[in-house]
Design goal:
- It is a single chain.
- The radius of gyration is 24 Å and the shape is globular.
- It is of the alpha+beta class.
- The protein is built from 9 helices and 20 strands.
- Strands 6-7-8-3-9-10 form a 6-stranded mixed sheet, sandwiched between helices. The chain has a 5-stranded antiparallel sheet with strand order 13-12-11-14-20.
- It has 2 domains: 238 residues, Rossmann fold, CATH 3.40.50.300; 108 residues, OB fold (Dihydrolipoamide Acetyltransferase, E2P), CATH 2.40.50.
- Bound molecules: adenosine-5'-triphosphate.
- Adenosine-5'-triphosphate binds next to strand 2 and helix 2.
Length: 364
C-alpha cells in the first residue's frame, strides 16, 4: 500500500546510483518532490546535476535504485524497469535549443504532437495555446534561423510543454542568453511553471537563479545530496561548510578555529567561547559577510588583514580581505575604496552564525 504522501509526490528517488565504468557519478541519492514544486539542482561542475536530470528523463539508466514519477516506477536498477523517455510524461528543455531548422516555429511545436498521434484539430489548437502562453504567436510562420536566441529558447520551451508533460526538466536552459534576457526569462519560466501546473526540475550553475526560482533546492556535491531544503533554510541553516560556502551572494565566510584555553581562536584572536566546540579541539566558524564590519568596533573580535579587492553590488561593496591565508568577505555601504595591500581592521559579530566540525558538519 502506498502512503498518501507517496501518492502526492511527483518524483520519488530511492537509493539511486549511477556509475560510468568504475566512476560513481551519482551515489545513494534519495529525494521526494511534491507535485507542483520547482526543484532546483545546484552544485559545482561535475557534481552530477545533468546525470541526475538525464536519469529522470530516461536518457540514462540507473546502476542502482529506483525512480518513480507520479507514483509509477519508471526506472529500477534492480528489476530492470526502464520506461522509454517518450512514455514518461516528462519534457526536457536543453541548453542548446535543438530546433528543427527546416520546420517553422509552429511546425516545431506541432511535431511532437504529431508523433504522439494527436488529431490535427486538437494539435493546431494546442499549438495556438502554447504560442500565446509564450507570447510568440507572431513568430508562428518563421524558421528558427529567422528568430533571435531568446525567441528560439521560447520556441524550445513551447515545444516541450505542448504535449502537457506533468514534469518539466530544464538543463541550464538560460545559460546561452545575455544577463538581461536571463532575468526576464526567469520570471517567464516561473509563470509557465505555474500556468502548466507541472512539477519542474531545473539544473543551473547560477545560484542567484536557484535562489530566486526554487521552492526546493538540492545541493549536490560529488554525486551525493549535500542538503535538500528551501532556499531560505539553506541560507539560514546550512548543514555543512560546503553548502555555506557555495550558497549565498557572497557565500558565508568559514574561519578555522582552535580551542586554546577557554576560547576558540583564529589568527591569534579569540572569537567565541570554547564551549561552542562541544569538546572538539578544532572547529570552523561561520560569519556572513554582513556580520563582518570594516573598521574597529569596540567589544567585537577584531582581525587585521590586507585589502584584496572590492566589487560594487547595488549600493554596497563586497570587500575581500586576506587574513592569514584566508579570504574574508565583508559588505560595506556605498563605494569602498582602498589600494590592494592596504591593511584593514575587520570586526566580527560577537557570535558566529554557525559552528561546524573540522570535517564540515554542523554542530551548532
Ligand atoms: N557518459 C559518461 N561517461 C563517463 N563519465 C560521465 C558521463 N557522463 C557524465 N560523466 C561524468 O560524471 C560526472 C558528473 O557529470 P555531470 O555532467 O552530471 O555533471 P554536472 O554537475 O552536470 O556538471 P556541469 O555543471 O559541468 O555540467 C562528471 O565527472 C562526468 O565527467
Amino acid at each position: 500500500m502506498k502512503s498518501t504522501q507517496e501518492e502526492q509526490d511527483a518524483i520519488r528517488i530511492c537509493k539511486l546510483g549511477k556509475s560510468f565504468g568504475d566512476y560513481d557519478a551519482i551515489k545513494d541519492v534519495n529525494i521526494s518532490v511534491p507535485k507542483g514544486a520547482f526543484l532546483v539542482l545546484v552544485g559545482p561542475s561535475g557534481c552530477g546535476k545533468s546525470t541526475l536530470l538525464r536519469l529522470l528523463a530516461g536518457l540514462e539508466s540507473p546502476t542502482e535504485g529506483e525512480i518513480a514519477l507520479d507514483g509509477r516506477v519508471v526506472s529500477s536498477g534492480a528489476s530492470g524497469i526502464a520506461v522509454e523517455p517518450g512514455a514518461r510524461k516528462a519534457g526536457l528543455v536543453f541548453q542548446s535549443y535543438a530546433l528543427w531548422p527546416h520546420m517553422t516555429v509552429a511546425g516545431n511545436i506541432s511535431w511532437p504532437l504529431k508523433v504522439a498521434k494527436w488529431p490535427k484539430q486538437v494539435r493546431d489548437s494546442r499549438v495556438d495555446e502554447v504560442l500565446s502562453l509564450l507570447g510568440i504567436g507572431n513568430l508562428a510562420d518563421r524558421f528558427p534561423a529567422e528568430i533571435s536566441g531568446g525567441q528560439q529558447q521560447r520556441v524550445a520551451i513551447a515545444r516541450t510543454i505542448a504535449p502537457k508533460p506533468s514534469i518539466l526538466l530544464f538543463d541550464e536552459p538560460l545559460s546561452n542568453l545575455d544577463a538581461k534576457l536571463r532575468v526576464e526569462m526567469r520570471s517567464e519560466l516561473m509563470r509557465i511553471h505555474r500556468a502548466t501546473g507541472a512539477t519542474s526540475v531545473y539544473v543551473t550553475h547560477d545560484q542567484v537563479e536557484a535562489m530566486t526560482m526554487a521552492s526546493h533546492v538540492i545541493v549536490l556535491n560529488n554525486g551525493k545530496v549535500e542538503q535538500s531544503a528551501s532556499p531560505y533554510e539553506l541560507l539560514e541553516n546550512p548543514r555543512t561548510t560546503f553548502v555555506a560556502s557555495f550558497i549565498g551572494t557572497p557565500p558565508a565566510n568559514i574561519l578555522p578555529a582552535d580551542r586554546i584555553g577557554d576560547s576558540l581562536v583564529f589568527d591569534d584572536t579569540p572569537l567565541a567561547p570554547a564551549s561552542f566546540a562541544r569538546g572538539r579541539d578544532k572547529v570552523q566558524l561561520l560569519y556572513r559577510a554582513q556580520d563582518v564590519a570594516i573598521g574597529a568596533v569596540e567589544g567585537r573580535p577584531q582581525l587585521a588583514g590586507t585589502f584584496m579587492e572590492a566589487a560594487p553590488i547595488d549600493a554596497s561593496s563586497m570587500v575581500s580581505v586576506l587574513v592569514g591565508n584566508i579570504r574574508v568577505t565583508a559588505m560595506s555601504q556605498g563605494y569602498f575604496k582602498a589600494v590592494p595591500g592596504d591593511v584593514l581592521t575587520l570586526s566580527l559579530a560577537s557570535r558566529p552564525g554557525g559552528v561546524f566540525s573540522a570535517h564540515g558538519e554542523r554542530i551548532d
